[in-house]
């Protein structure tokens, strides 16, 4: 019988590959394995935080062999990176309302729903906390937000073409300005933002963009 790896370490199998965050995808095994493992990892993060994320525990929860999890994800940070990549892939697409205010309010309300969800809100708090002290988790979190900002940036570009905003307005800066106060409230006040908070954040971003604050 091969030697079992200790929790949090790579297996002793010389063929096992140490994964880098965001680079691992399932090979010949069914996608159900990935879904089960990522779901289990999200549960642990939401319930106990990053400090208690353990590959062996995740494998047990997902009813998947430990060797499979160690070989495919390689580390806690590799697993978190894949979880964030999956969350970005599964996020709802951009809403096109025909106006900048409508688009940004839709963005803000989507962020609010995510942060207000008991599981998702707790999960994001855990990942953000881990990112402050772990470089690989921080990089994975940045990639997650890059995907989401890129998804929503066209609503600002379209507003420029419609004449709602000045040419040279930085789309990414506007999109970040919408969600920033919602995350700040979650992290500093300990309460999920309301729909009114979401609309206020979007309206503030619109006003600032119209005033040329984000023009480069």
From TrEMBL:
Keywords: DNA-binding, Transcription, Transcription regulation
Annotated stretches, region: Disordered: 1-27
One Pfam entry name: TetR_N
Every HTH tetR-type domain range: 31-91
DNA-binding region: 54-73
PANTHER family reported for this sequence: HTH-TYPE TRANSCRIPTIONAL REGULATOR RUTR, TETR-FAMILY TRANSCRIPTIONAL REGULATOR
Record's protein name: TetR/AcrR family transcriptional regulator
Annotated source species: Streptomyces aureus
